[in-house]
Amino acid sequence: MILRLNLKSLISSFSSFLPAATMSSATGTSQLQQQLNYRGTARVQPVDGSHSEEVYEPATGRVMGKFLFSGEKEVDLAVQSAKAAFKIWSQKSGMERSRVLLEAARIIRERRDEIATMETINNGKSIFEARIDVDISWQSLEYYAGLAGAIAGQHVQLPGGTFAYTRREALGVCFGIGAWNYPFQIACWKAAPALACGNAMIYKPSPLTPISVLMLAEIFTEAGVPSGLFSVVQGGADTGRFLCQHPGVAKISFTGSVPTGIKIMEMSAKGIKPLTLELGGKFPLIIFSDSVLENAVTGALMANFLTQGEVCCNGTRVFVQREILQAFTDEVVKRTQKIKIGDPLLEDTRMGALISRPHLERVLGFIKQAKEQGAKVLYGGDPYVPEDAKLTNGYFMRPCVLGNCRDDMTCVKEEIFGPVMSILPFDTEEEVLERANNTNFGLAGGVFTRDIQRAHRVVAGLQAGMCFINNYNISPVELPFGGYKMSGFGRENGQAAMEYYSQLKTVCVEMGDVESVF
Ligand SMILES: NC(=O)C1=CN([C@@H]2O[C@H](COP(=O)(O)OP(=O)(O)OC[C@H]3O[C@@H](n4cnc5c(N)ncnc54)[C@H](O)[C@@H]3O)[C@@H](O)[C@H]2O)C=CC1
Ligand SMILES: C[N+](C)(C)CCCC(=O)O
């Protein structure tokens, strides 16, 4: 039975993929049988490749299938077809592009549950969260559809009737490199502004989560983009390198780890290619004693436990003013204990499985080290084995709250990328700001307080691109999102992203004779 995820047959596809009537209890049944590259208007088997790798279902540890890592010839074919599509797409008006993006957003909305189900099966996050991710995804397409028609230049009057105008032009073929934590959403955050500006995009998802982006490719085709405008090339570091170094690629946008970001920046430097880097880190959430305690506790859970803690902007260093340390900690532990872990396709599950066995072990290793360095596990931090027999080999753990933490501990300095919250006491505003900024990372930060002046003063002092006051980790697509310091540069979302997917041309128009200096 062939797995079909293309548009017209999504319902039947899911009846072949998941038992139709029991979609919510279908963990452990999906098999991968379709090709995972997308070129032109169809799924294809890459023409060359280095080797095959397995795709896992994190909740069961089951292998869902295998796929080939694309080689240089496949990469070149994708670039050639993207270049052809770019010629057509970049000539369209913003309003024409807008209509196609709106149609794609509509289809995503219509297929919300199927996409979220796929994301849950391949990533391990709860279906509850996956649906939110899909909503943010179509909102991104809608938002940039709205901006596409507003792309405009300036007119500048010069002496003697001479004048100039500026044109905001597309860059060409953009290469998007995705991480495994938000597979569908990251693809949309990159594709939406890229396509709105008139570019083509080749997308390489993480090899751990290669599946859901194929649905996006098929949706773009159904919505009416030219053949080749959005391609999917599967693979790992080698495939990524071929694309970064390909002379036909005009821009790179990367979401992932700092070490890989450094390698990509080196490659983009060699080709002088514009680059957006959305990297991770270790971010501060500062809770003052005058906070509304319940909101601050909820904020800390939002900052640490979404998607099993595998979130680039998490506020994992939770600084709590000493007067409320005990009350806050007790409440956080109580609420963390209540998080329902288990089959991610069940409606009431709020924490699913981590992405892979090695990643789970790495996260547990951080907790072991934290204990050795003097931290106290106040809750969780151990593997979790659900009662359901089919989940026995899944990559589950209980979310972890660490007390007795110090700034010099590894768990406080390094990105764990798992559900591990470190609580750190502080006394004064000045002290906490200094400690909060004492890191090379700067993607996000948050503050909880009822004192409005202090709230604005503290976020003004935070060295981070995305700051929250009295909330954390919400992601309206209208807001620019990106890092300071080693967490990257460039912005995704918001109007700002349009600048990173376009370039400015100035046209100077002489209305008189040429005055020569010779
Ligand atoms: N900031 C964030 O959102 C993320 C941070 N991470 C962190 O990174 C750790 C490792 O996760 P990985 O998935 O291995 O992250 P990674 O940064 O190595 O991979 C991200 C993407 O880059 C690609 N890639 C890797 N090497 C490349 C190269 N030389 N040229 C071009 N593309 C390349 C990968 O195939 C993947 O699509 C995690 O445990 C976590 O700590 C991981 C994913 C997302
Ligand atoms: C959606 N949000 C804000 C929770 C995370 C998005 C950034 C990322 O980790 O890729």
TrEMBL record:
Instruction: State the pathway, as annotated in the record.
Output: Amine and polyamine biosynthesis; carnitine biosynthesis
GO molecular-function terms, A-Z: 4-trimethylammoniobutyraldehyde dehydrogenase activity; aminobutyraldehyde dehydrogenase (NAD+) activity; formaldehyde dehydrogenase (NAD+) activity
Reaction equation(s) it catalyzes: an aldehyde + NAD(+) + H2O = a carboxylate + NADH + 2 H(+); 4-(trimethylamino)butanal + NAD(+) + H2O = 4-(trimethylamino)butanoate + NADH + 2 H(+)
Using the UniProt record, give the first listed, main subcellular location.
cytoplasm
- Highest taxon of the lineage: Eukaryota
- Give start and end of each Aldehyde dehydrogenase domain: 52-507
Q: Give a GO biological-process term.
A: aldehyde metabolic process
Q: Which Pfam families match?
A: Aldedh
- Provide a GO CC annotation, any one: cytosol
InterPro entries (alphabetical): Ald_DH/histidinol_DH, Ald_DH_C, Ald_DH_CS_CYS, Ald_DH_N, Aldehyde_DH_dom
Q: Print the keywords alphabetically.
A: Cytoplasm, NAD, Oxidoreductase
Q: Where in the cell is it found?
A: Cytoplasm, Cytosol
* Family per record: Belongs to the aldehyde dehydrogenase family.
Quaternary data:
Homotetramer.
Tell me the protein's name: Aldehyde dehydrogenase 9 family member A1
Q: Which organism is it from?
A: Sphenodon punctatus
* Gene designation: ALDH9A1
